[in-house]
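Before relying on records like the one below, remember that each one covers exactly one chain. Contacts with other chains, cofactors or solvent are not represented anywhere in the record.
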Amino acid sequence: MDTSLVNVVVGIAVAVLIIARQFSTRKYAGPGANPRKFLVLPIVLVVLAVSEKGLVDKAHQGASIALLVAGVVVEAALACAWGFTTKVWRESDGSVYGKGTPAAIGVWLVMIAARLGLYALGAAMGVHSGSGALLVSVAALLLVRNGVVMWRARELEPTYRVSAAG
């Protein structure tokens, strides 16, 4: 099977998984949490992207690298927005949880439009864009989004689940 096809299938599966999971409550830190688990998927995606031979179009190296960098920068910027559409709270035991809000759907629509725009720009310039660029961008997206959520979580006070009446 062609590695490009495998990477596209992996990229789509990861996107579906991320979109589906963003609306469920997830533990980010605290007792029993392993913050390093948020590094595993981005690392796997980068390894898959680098293993693909067509990460950079040899016929248009400069433009291809510029589009790759632009994609990573755009995804990182939108990941910041996505990180701020996530509701984050700290429980009394110090555990940090997060859950996507409906505003995240808007951010995802903008991310998809931006990605399609970059592909269209590349096609207009004659640059062949492989699936590796998408995988690297998604890795950056996940790293930055999780970083924003963790950064926001450091400033939180615990919630004690005590009624205001007593």
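The helical segments are 3-21, 37-51, 61-84, 103-125, 131-154.
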